[in-house]
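Hi R.,

As promised on Friday, here is the backbone we talked about, encoded as structure tokens. Could you run it through your design pipeline when you get a chance and send me back a sequence?
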């Protein structure tokens, strides 16, 4: 049984005088192709948006609908894509941290507290709280997970048109059997992560 995220964490912070709280999450750590993407979202404390939950629990159509609602209601949001070349250069963990930091730092509104899914390094000059499984329990983090996932999927659709032989519109860069066969047949595309171990 899945747990729906709540605004309890945000309301607790708000009771202490905190007004601007950014939820942050990432998408695309595991694929063998494409960027890792992070989103930061600042929502009004009284925001009511239906179906906000871990993006993996929503259908693609539902995610897109909820993402549109989150963007409409948000006081501010930001998206950061870190490309495969950077992932290969600095490793996926550091690239993910860079995506998170870039998403937060490009917000127009400076958050007073940042709630981040999982475990990440602190962001300079900001109060950061890491929440394990935050995309399942914390409303603003779940909202960010939906923005990150839909933004990355949209980018992978554009790559699918550029490199149709890899079916990125279906696998989103993850190593399915058909994706692996395409790599064997055509080699790596310019957006594949060469640092990932791919058994050919």
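Update: got your reply. Pasting your designed sequence below so it's all in one thread:
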């Amino acid at each position: 049984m899945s747990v729906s995220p709540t605004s309890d964490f945000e309301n607790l912070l708000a009771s202490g005088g905190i007004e601007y709280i950014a939820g942050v999450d990432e998408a695309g750590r595991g694929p063998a192709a494409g960027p890792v993407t992070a989103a930061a979202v600042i929502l009004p404390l009284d925001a009511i948006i239906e179906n906000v939950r871990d993006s993996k629990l929503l259908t693609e159509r539902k995610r897109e609908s909820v993402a549109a609602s989150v963007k409409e209601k948000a006081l501010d949001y930001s998206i950061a894509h870190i490309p495969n070349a950077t992932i290969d250069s600095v490793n996926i963990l550091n690239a993910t941290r860079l995506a998170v930091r870039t998403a937060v730092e490009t917000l127009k509104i400076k958050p007073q507290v940042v709630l981040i899914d999982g475990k990440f390094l602190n962001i300079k000059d900001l109060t950061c709280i890491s929440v394990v499984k935050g995309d399942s329990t914390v409303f603003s983090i779940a909202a960010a997970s939906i923005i990150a996932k839909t933004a990355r999927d949209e980018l992978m659709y554009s790559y699918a048109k550029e490199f149709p032989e890899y079916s990125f519109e279906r696998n989103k860069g993850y190593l399915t059997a058909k994706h692996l066969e395409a790599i064997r047949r055509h080699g790596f595309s310019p957006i594949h992560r060469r640092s990932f171990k791919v058994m050919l």
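One thing I noticed while checking it: The longest strand covers residues 21-27.

Thanks again,
M.
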